[in-house]
Amino acid sequence: SSSFCQPSTLKTCQCDGLIPFSDKGKLTTTLMFQINNINTAVTTMEGHDKNNIVTIQREINNLRKKLQECEEAIASGAGLANLSMSPPVGDCNHGGILKVSDPVLVKLNWKGSDFKAGSWGKDFAVGTKTPDHYWVFPLNKDERTLESYRLYSSYKKLLIYSPVREYSLNIRNNPNCEDCGQGAGVIFFNGSFYYNCFDSRALCRADPFSMRISRENIEDQDPASFNNWFSYKGVKYQDIDLAGDEKGLWMVHVANGNMVIRKVNPDTLQLDTPWTTSQKKRNVSNAFMICGVLYATKRVNSTHEVIFYAFDTNSAKEHSLRIFLNKPLPTMQSLSYNPNDQKLYMYNDGYLVYYDVKFKPRVAKRAGPALAADSGLDIHDGKSQSLVVKSAQSAADKEDRSLGNRQQKTKTSKGEISAIHESRMM
Ligand SMILES: *[C@@H]1O[C@H](CO)[C@@H](O)[C@H](O)[C@H]1NC(C)=O
Ligand SMILES: *[C@@H]1O[C@H](CO)[C@@H](O)[C@H](O)[C@H]1NC(C)=O
Ligand SMILES: *[C@@H]1O[C@H](CO)[C@@H](O)[C@H](O)[C@H]1NC(C)=O
Ligand SMILES: *[C@@H]1O[C@H](CO)[C@@H](O)[C@H](O)[C@H]1NC(C)=O
After folding, report:
1. Does 420 sit in the ligand 1 pocket, CB within 6 Å?
2. Protein residue with least CA distance to atom 4, ligand 4
3. Of 100, 102, 301, 325, which is best to mutate to test ligand 4, by the most ligand atoms within 8 angstroms of its C-beta?
4. Residues 247-259: tens digit of each pLDDT
5. What residue spans of 104-177 are helical by DSSP H?
6. Measured on CA atoms in the order 317, 321, 325, 330, is the torsion positive or negative?
7. Is the keyword Secreted in the record (predicted)?
8. For residue 324, which atom of ligand 4 is closest to its CA?
């Protein structure tokens, strides 16, 4: 208790384990440090914007909670090993979703509460060249047209509404906006947006840094597989939903009314052969991919969705499950999983919400201690993984630097570019 922290003994006071007594305490120190930093940030922000302070207060509370968990774990002698049930980023050596946290309501989208539909998140490619970038992409008020979005270089920048820039897909300023997209199935993957091109059965890719847009028609037999014929239940124009997971870029589409999953080549936009699921797309409220497994959700009521169905493209097997998602507002407009932070990103009636995902350990296939068998695999996988991640990260560092240069260039070249420069709010 705090009674140990009398002013007279403050110099040597250990404040009940807040100050680490071993290297296990490293995490608590880090958390304390973060809390202090944020407290300082809040103090300097006071008077700027009440909403931001509310958001940051929430972050502080989250960190406090984490700190408390750490302390409890240390006190119980359990150590920190059990705190994170998550495998390392990019690792698929787990048994699927165990649970999803309570929602974290981050903020309202930058266009306001009238913009109910849209999508948001962090770059969804493992080893991406823009690892810290967040995007917020509200649809226009028609809840169909994808036109303007904001890109933020960090979570903090997102919180304080300080984007890199505001961009428009309507680069030719055309009233029909043929370069725009439709529906909230859009994602940001390895520094590009991937989305269903406006009014067409085609995939588009937009690179905000070069302002280049490419498109590729989807060859398919089903004449009614775009333009709101087979969206998800309760939301419009998500006939084509993009997803990025540990295995790459995916498209969730439809054939004969059923959901189909196809791998997308991010460079050429070429599609692999489809996996056909047994679920009617019209019956599903949304879907996302984790490690090549499609998870589908259903609306339960105005406060809950449920993850009820999974299709594993690794084994072509499906199964049912029941994991509830608590949502702050009634309509889940889009839902995507990010393999880089193992979070689900939901655009919830204009509000930005995320969830942490925890995974089950992989079930051992042979007799003997499961842990030993699995950790043997882990060490091997972990090694090759970290090498890949390392080189990707140093590439990303370089990319970040040249990215700054390219923005410089786009700033100075006039004409085709319709990006509007943002004035910082602070
Ligand atoms: C860690 O978690 C495992 C699995 O949930 C459990 O069996 C074990 O007892 C936990 N260890 C401690 C020290 O709490
Ligand atoms: C991201 O793009 C870079 C080149 O721009 C490429 O080398 C890398 O493989 C890409 N990563 C993914 C996950 O597609
Ligand atoms: C699924 O969709 C079919 C046809 O669209 C409909 O008949 C059925 O009632 C739906 N099932 C559920 C559980 O919503
Ligand atoms: C919605 O469903 C969930 C899960 O069954 C339940 O816990 C919750 O109370 C329900 N909420 C309302 C408003 O009915």
Report:
1. no
2. 304
3. 301
4. 999 999 999 899 9
5. 155-159
6. positive
7. yes
8. 4
Task: Let me know if 283 is exposed, middle or buried by CB neighbors in 10 A (0-12, 13-18, 19+).
Answer: middle
Q: How far is the C-alpha of 238 from the C-alpha of 140, rounded, in Å?
A: 14
What pLDDT digit, counting tens, does each position of 211-258 carry? 899 999 988 767 778 888 899 999 999 999 999 999 999 999 999 899
The structure tokens listed for 126 are 């493992």
d(CA 388, CA 94): 20
CB 336 within 8 A of CB 327: no
Cβ(304) to ligand 4 under 6 A? Answer: yes
Residue 276 amino acid letter: T
Report the alpha-carbon distance of residue 14 to residue 392 in Å, rounded: 41
* Ligand 1 pocket residue status of 84, Cβ below 6 Å: no
Could you tell me the pTM of the whole model?
0.70
Going 249 to 336 to 240 to 259, the CA torsion angle's sign is positive
Tokens of 187: 């994602």
Q: Which residues pair with 245 in a beta bridge?
A: 248
CB of residue 301 inside a 6 A radius of ligand 4? yes
CA-based angle 38:41:44, to the nearest 5? 155
Separation of alpha carbons 198 and 162, rounded Å: 28
Task: Name the residue among 348, 345, 344 with its Cα closest to residue 328.
Answer: 348
H or E element, residue 49: none
Q: Which domains does the chain have, with CATH numbers?
A: 7-75 (no CATH), 97-416 (2.120.10)
Nearest to 110 by CA among 182, 178, 167, 172: 167
Residues in contact with 77: Cβ distance below 8 Å, sequence separation at least 6, in sequence order = none
CA distance 171 to 50: 35
